[in-house]
Every structure is written in structure tokens, then in C-alpha cells.
Amino acid sequence: MQFRQIKDRMKIVKMAITSPTGAYFHVDELIEVARLLGLRSADEISAVEEDIAREAAVSGDLQLAFDLCIVLARKGHGYIWDLCAAIARGPALENMDVDSRKQLLGFALSYCDEESIGELLHAWKDLDMQGQCETLMISTGSNPSKFSLRGSYFNSLPKQSIQNICFQASNGMNTNNQDVHLDKIKDELSAVAKTLAIGDQIDWALSLTENVKVLSFAASQLLWLLDLSKNGEHDTKLITGKQYLNMRTQAVVTILSWLARNEFSPRDNLIASLAKSVMEQPVTEEEDIIGCFYLLNLFDAFNGVEVIEEQLKIRKDYQQICSIMNVGMAYSLLHNSGIGTDHIQRKELLKMRFKEKHASPTTNEIDTLGKVQSSFWREWKVKLEEQERLTDHYRALQKIIPGVETERFLSGDSIYIENEVLNLIESVKMEKKHILKDILKLADTYGLNSTEVLLQYLSAILVSDVWTNDDIAAEIADYEANIVANGAKTISTLSSIVYPAIDGCNKLRLAYVYGLLSECYLHLESSKDSSPIAYHDYQNSDIKFAHYYRVIEQECKHVSFVKNLNFKNIAGLHGLNFECFNDEVYACIEESSLSALSKMVQTVANIYGNSLPEGFISWQDVYKYYILHLLSDLESKATNESSSRTPEYLQSFISKLKHSYGSCRTYIRLLSQSDALGIMKKYFTVIIHLYSSYRFIPDNSTWQDCLIVLLDFWTRLTDDMKEIALEESSGETISFNPVCLLSCLKAFTKLVMEDILSPSQGWGSIYGYVQCGLIGESTLEIYSFCKAMIFSGCRYGAVAELPSSIRVYVLELMQYISGKSIKGFLAEIEANVQPWEEWNELLYAGSKSEDVDKQLPDHKDSSNRFTNTLVALKSSQLVALISPSIEITADDLLNIDSAVSCFLKICGEASNNSHFDALVAILEEWDGLFTTMKYRERETTAEVSEGGNDWNDDWDEGWESLEEVENPEKEKKGDSPAVHPLHVCWTEIFKKLISVSRFSDVLRLFDQSSSKPNVMLLDEDDARSLSQIALGMDCFAALKMTLLLPYKGLHLQCMVAVEDNLSQGIPATKIRDVELLILIFSSGVLTSITNDSTYGKIFSYICYLFGNLSNQCQQALVSGKRINSSEDAENPLLLFRTTLFPMFISELVKADQHVLAAFLVTKFMHTNESLSLINIAEASLVWYLERQLHLLQMNEVPVEKTCITLKNTVGSLRGKMSSLIQSTLSLLSPRVR
Questions:
Q1: CA 1164 → CA 862, 1115, 1152, 1197, distances in Å?
Q2: Among 69, 113, 378, 1035, which one is least packed by beta carbons within 10 Å?
Q3: pTM reported for the whole predicted model
Q4: Residue 813 to residue 477: CA distance in whole angstroms
Q5: Residue 1102: what pLDDT?
Q6: pLDDT tens for each residue of 566-597
Q7: Position 347 confidence tier, pLDDT thresholds 50, 70, 90
Q8: How are beta strands 1015-1016 and 978-979 bridged, if at all?
Q9: How far is it, in rounded angstroms, from Cα 1045 to Cα 1039?
Q10: Residue 924 near residue 871 (C-beta atoms within 8 A)
């Protein structure tokens, strides 16, 4: 009931804690009671624990109070700080070490009031000192007790008198000795401290008697710490914060801390001892800097000099020596700068100095060195710098050349220095050492030629096997400009030393050397260096070596993977190695290296342009050699393995042949047309080496399959040959025609597959063909193929199975072989084929057999029937261009009527220019057949009946042979020209051509027919109908067309139409009509035009044409154009000058127009006006005509191409000119002549 009346629950807990029964001891139960009372927050629980701790302290239970204080300190319960401070400064307890005390004091300092801070800080320092001592005791295993009285003054909280302390120190000695011990303590203290830091208290006795703690520490700890600081056994380093200190140093630090705690000034020897401890080896640069900081606290700065010089003497490591020297120079600079005793300023300056990392003194610093204090520091700094320089030299020498005699280097022994440097350079040949910078530094330091040393080093690493190109490039990267700048020396070194020492198969290293040479030559060229090394005495002076070596470098890299290629046999220092080049390339040709070697050959050849020696390999020869080598292997296998006479072996060999071609097909397409076709032919001829084993093979399906596989391969091969032959060639003349061979092979394969030819016949045929074929035009190829088939036992029945396109050629050849000429192929066949006397007997030996009877229908004249079949086949090929469904048979060509009917039917299908051209070609094929027949009938029928098997003796007088003019003596006088038997067909063709305004083609066809004057293409009715059609379209064209025909009435009719047209003016398209002038002269109508005034406008038009053409001739001559050249397709000005104008002058003279003729000649000859008073016109006329006659007799005027359309007509005019001019000259006055 009483507890329930208390509202403050914490008060109830406190009552329970303070009960006299010792309830505070039950901490957990009290906390549980508090929770039951509702005190559950962290702060409330901490408050309960605080009350328990305080009650325990009051009751004397300090251990429990300590444990609870530790817990509350960790929780940050600040209200307990005073108890924590009291326990920390109280007596020793179980589990309470110095760190625990420091933890409690630290917590108390965080929450105490201002008045208690000073007192707690002093207590903290005392604890820290005690902690340092305990650490040293544990680490060293020593105890201060043997140096001082027992116990620790830290545990003596009550104040002691001087007598008690001295008594403890003397361990029971009498009072008279107390002064002795006090003096001893004073001596020890004075050894480490100069005086008190505050006031003028110099009396040590008074200081000790007034400060019991100082006396206690000096009596119990100081001697022990001094002994540790001097004992060399305690050099093991301890981790203290971020610094690693040995125990001797820690002892000194502890003494210094105690002195500072009690405001004593330490003596220099103690500070120097600390600096030495920090700087003891092994030492880091950071530790040296710390040591320098310590030395700056010395009262006498020269004591620091002694420490630094001592360190210089004992140190051996280069880095440590450099470090202490830097410390010494910084130390001297700081003391010489006049900063004085301002330790803060010294500290900042020292930090700044070391941040500059050994920077050279500024101008201001140097001035200060000369003005402030004594010269000692300057001299000492100079001494340090000199010592540092020597140390650097020594270090550098030992690093670069271990074991070198440094003194000889430093003394300047040039011979020794040079030998050692050369030996060092030689060593990099066997061991990769990146020492170029060091070697060049030695050269600069000791007076060697840096350029020579650099080039020697470069030579050594270039000829070494342990250095890669990348290693070399990285090594000389910083000196490459210097190497190139000394181009002449570098070239000499590389040429005389490096290049001969490098293996030619080490192409990557050679490429690197070539690259350096290129850069050097480029520098010499750009700087216009005139040194002899820049210009080699070489046969091809056009080579720029910078470009040459750059190209060679690239190609050397590209072929570096070709193992056995010795690149020195490809290229030398001054040009390609022509003696070994070809052999070296050929020796290394493999499939993997083909492309690279070919590209290399092409690229290096381009350097020389057209100045390569004869026989130098081309890039295509690389592929050619490889392919021929593979074929040679196949041929060798075919010869050496000839005993394997089985179809399986033949199949295997064909497979190898196909695989060889498949792998080489791409390479073949890279060759020239002739080389490509030549190699592809070898895939045919390779079977010659097999024939000895397969001369007689069984006629069964297995061997038939082998033959079909071979023929299929050849067909695909020929198809590729056709593509190559159709490509634009570079001026090459390709005589071989694979198109014809392709058709033959397809037809031949069909014969084999359909069992028309047996395997033995097929094998014999292809063997016979490859022996004599593959060498000429289609005519010769077909001849060779057919001859091979016949010799192998094939009869005409097999030939008849060929496609019509091939059968045409075969029939033509068969006709010629039998001794008959053939239209269209006469020149080719006569040049390549010889008639075969035994042909008739062989061809018709089996004529009674069924096969031949089926192929040759019954006819009285088998020769004519054979000819008709041939012409029909060729005509069918042509008519396919018009309509593939139309086919011309031999029956269509039995007579003229059937032929005309067939042709008119074809004309009905023709609708465009290509169709019209096909019609002309068809009629030309028929022309020889029917004109010969007609001519033969007119001459005699007796010769035809006696001809027997003489197949059309005169059939060669076809269209192409119309240029051969018949012998006039053989013609009967008074015979009128006969009309062409196919004139109706020709009329239809001309109508088609006129309908599309192809008048030039009409004129050309008429001109061609004029070469055979006994045959006229059209009768007068046909010509009249055509002229009427032409007059409705172009009267000038109609006139030209009729002038080519011998029908005078049509001439006059068309001339009237032209006269009427000219009354309206000369059309712009007719101002240069040379064709009309040619036809007017050839037809002889000029006399009618000249004498008949009805045609005055035509005569004026003719004069206009001559004037216009004459003007064009004169302009051409003035401009320097050669009008006598016959290179152009047509040259109308040449025709005008050499033919038309002389004929016109002659005709004018014959028409008694002498004055006009002479006037035209003088104008044409551009006679000088000053001669106008002299009558020279007639003389000029005579001279002109005599000159033209002379040119005709000398045949000096090339007029073959002056007018392609009227070629025959122009030729006829030229033939008449001589007699015309002679007759004209006879009409002129003999006096003038």
C-alpha cells in the first residue's frame, strides 16, 4: 500500500537500492523490478544502473561500480562522469588496466564541467605516461624496480615527504645518505633537461622538493628509461600510431613526454638521440623527414650536422644516401634562411621544402645563402651537393656496369671508358636490357660521341635474336629523330654492319631495317643532302630509294609468313636481285603463299615501270606456275600409274582433275586470256597420258559412266573458257573459239548418253580430238572433232544427230573436204583444212546401210540435195532471230518458186530492223545457190550432167564472191544483164528498208550488186515501184537509188523531182551530199545536166556542193588537219580532193567549159592575186590535171575507206579517172601544154 502511494517509480527503485540489506548487489533483479514498474526505456534503465553503481561505490564495492561505469560509458550515459573519474584515479582493481582507466577518464572528459577539465587532463597525462612505461616493460621484459625504489609513484596517491621518498630509494640507508641519493637524482635529471621551462627556478633541489611527482618519477622510472634508450638490444620496432618506432626510440619519446609534461626543456643530446633512433637503417624517406623535424628542435644546430654526417658515413644504400643528403641540404637551407627559433615557421618551411621534391634553390634563396649567418652552411651545402653528385655518378655506373672501376671513369680514362661502353653494348646482343638512355647518358657525361654510341647500340639490338621489332621500336622511340637526322651515318651503318648480319629469312627484321633506310633516304632527299651515300651508282637512276625501301619494307612484311623465302634473293640494298628473284619466288610457291607472292611481284615490278629486264617474272606467272605444277603432278600420276586399268581408277583420276581445276579456277581467271585458255586446254590434253592404258575399253555402262563424267567436266570447263574468251582483251588475238567446242561437247555427250556412240568410240574420238584440236577457229575445231569421230569408227549417222548449229559447220566442212569450196568460210577453210581424197570412199562406203539411207532421202542429185540441206540449216539459224517457230527445210529451196514463197512468208513476220537484217542475211545465203544455178543453165547444161558427184562447182560464186569481176573476154558481146532470180525477194527487202528510211543500206546493197554487172537485182518494174515509194519520202534518196540502176527513164523522172525541190532552196541536210556527186559521175548524167538548161538548179546545186567541199578542204589544210589520212572509217574530203574534183574539172573541160574549169582550179589552188594580170589559169588547169594523173599512176592516194556505202562505185570511178584525165588533157591547147 505504501509503494502504491509513491507516484515517482524511480524513487521506489532507489529505495530498494539503498536498503541496508545490500540489494544493490542484485543488479539484474533490480533492473527487472524497474521494468515491472514501467521503467523500460534505455535512459531509464541507464539511470537505474547509475544508482546501483553509486550505491556500490558508497558501500565500498568498487569492482561492481567499475563494471557498471564501463557499461554506462559505452552507452554514453554522461551523468556518471564524476564516478568514472574517481574510479579511474582510484586504487587498482581486478581487470582494470591502464587502458580501462584511460577509457573512463576519456569518458569523464567528454561530459565533465569546465572546472574539472584541467585536473582530469593532468590525470590523463599521468595515465598515458604510465601506459607507455608498461608497454616498454612488457616489450623488453625489464622492470624499473632494479633501477629505483619498489612500487610506483602512480599508486601513491597520498602526498609523501622528501625524506620518505629518499628513504625508499636508499632501501633503508641512514639519513646522511639521503642527500647523496637526492644529488644522484638531480644529476640524472640534469642529464636530460636543461632547466624548468617556467620562471627562473634553477635550483634542482627546490624543484624536486616542491614537486613530489617529479621526484617520484625521476627516482623510480627515469634511470630505467635512460638505460633502455642506450641499450642496443632493444632495436625491435613497435607500431605506435602510424609510425614504426623501435623500443629505444620509444624510451626516448617517453622521457621527452615526461619532460614536456613537467615543463622541462630537453637537452640536445636527447633530441639527437631521438633523431638517430628514427633515422636508423632500414629507413624510409618519410622517417628521414621526421628525423629532420626533430633536429630542428636542437638548441645548437651544429649537433644536427654531426647527426646527418654520421648517417652519411654509415649508409650504403643509394636511395638512403640520397635521402639523408636531401635532408642535410634542407636542414642547412632552413638554418641559413634566418628563421631563428620560430618553430612554427621552421615547420612550415620544411614542409614546403620537401613538397618541392629536391627542387633547386630559387634566386632569392641563393641570395639569402650569401647574406645570412656564416659561410659554414653554404660550404656544408656545397659539400653535400658534391658528395651527392659523386654518389649519383657512382650509383649510375654501378647500376649500368656492375663491378666497373668507378675511379677510372671519374678520372676520365677515355680508353677504359670506351672499352667498357662497347662491352656493355655488346652484352645486349645476348640479353635484352633496356639501357639505351643510361648508355647515352654515360656518353654525354664522359665525352663519347653520342651519335656513334647510338648507332652502335642500334646495330647490336638489330642483329640480336633476343630483341623483337616492338622491343627495338620502344627502345629507340625517343631517339628515332636523331637516327634519321644522321641519315648518311645511319645508312652506312645499316648497310655495312646490320644488313649483312641479318638472315634473309628473318623478314620482319629486314623489313624493320628497310623502314629505317627509307626514313633516312627520305630525310636526305628532303634536305637535298649531296653526300655520296645518298646517290648510288646504279643502272636505274630513276629509282627514288626512299620510295624503294618503303615499298620493299611493306612487301617484306606481307610475305613474312612464307618460311623458306630468303628476301635477300628478292631485294638488295640498291635494287631488286634480278639474278635470283625468279628462282626464289618459284621455289616458295605454295597455295598458302600464292596471293602474297603475286602481290609482292606486282608491287615491286611497279617500281621499275617499263625498265624491267627481259624474262622477269610477272604477278600472273606466280599463279601460272602453281597451276602448271599441279597439272604436271597429275600428268606424272597418269603416266606412272598406267597399270591401274580399271574404271574405278579412271573415276578417281577424273575426280582429282576436277578438284585440281576447282581449286585453281579463281587463279586461272586472273591470267591473261591466252595463258588462261592455254592452261585450261591442258585439262583436256592430260588424258593423252592415260590413253596407253585405256586404248581399248569394253563397251559397257561402267566405262560409259566414266566417259560421261569426263565429258561433263569438259563441258563446264569449256563454258568457263567461253566466258574468258568473251572478256575484253588487252590487245590479245585469241584464235581459239570455245563456243564451237562447247556445242560439239554437248552434242557429243548426248550421242554417248543415247548409246549412238559406244564408250570405245567415244574414248577414241576425244583422244583423237585432243591430239589435233584446241588450236584454231571454229571451222578447224569442228574439222578436228569430226575427223576424230570418223577415225574412231563413227559414221555419218552420228553426225546427223548433231544439233543444227553444229551440223551446219560439219556439212560445210564435209563439202570442202570432198574438194568443193564453200561460201562464207572459204578463207578459213583454205588456210587450215586440206581436201581429203579418200573422203568420198569413206563417207559413202556404207551408203547402202539403213542408217545412211535414213539420213539421205532419195534424190537424183545427192550433191545438190546435200547443198540444199546445208543452206536450209544455215537459213534456219538466221530465221530464228525473226521467229523461232519458223524452220526452213531443203524442200523449201528445191526451186525459185518455192524459195520465193518461203521468203515472202518470212517477210510477213519481220517487223523491226534486226528482222530486216536477218532477211538480208538469209537472202545472201540463198543468192549463191540460185544465181549459180541460173548462170549454169545459161552457160551449158552439159557440164552439169557430167559433174556427177561434183557438188556445185560454181556455188562459191555467191554473195561474198561478187567482188570478183568476171573476165570480160569470156562474156559475149551484146548480152544484156540478166535479172536476179530472186528479184521479187530483193524488192520486198528494199521496201522494208525504205519504210524505215534505211536508204544507206539500200545504196550499199545496190553498190555490192554492181560488182557483178551481168546480174541486176531488180527489173525495171520493181525499180519503178521502189522509186515511187522513195520519191514520196526523199527525192534526193530516190535519185541516188535510181542512179545505181541502168534505167534512164527513172533517172530523168527523179531528176525532175529534185529540180522542183531545189526551186525552194537547198535543204540544210543536203549541203554536203558526197554520195550524190559520186552517183552523178558514175551514172554519166552530168553531161545531160550540164547541157540541158532544164536542170539548171541541179547544176547550180552541184556547183554549190563543190564550192562548199572545196572550202572545207581549204580550212582543213589551214588548220593542219591531214585529209590524206585513211585511218577514219570514212573520209569524204579525201574522196573529194582526189576523185570528185578532178573528175568535175575534166567533165567541165569536155563540156567546153574551159574558163569555168580553169577558174575553179585557180581558186582551189589559192593562186596569188598579184598574178591576176598574167593569164595563168589555163596553165594551172593543165598542171593540176597532169599532177592528178601522176598520182593515179603512182597509186599514192589511199581511197579504200573514203565511202563505205558506195565502195564498189568509188572503185569503178577511180578506174575510169586515168582515161578521163588523159582525154581531157588532149582537148587542151598544145601551146599551153
A1: 65, 12, 20, 18
A2: 113
A3: 0.48
A4: 78
A5: 87
A6: 999 999 888 899 999 999 999 999 989 999 99
A7: low
A8: parallel
A9: 10
A10: no
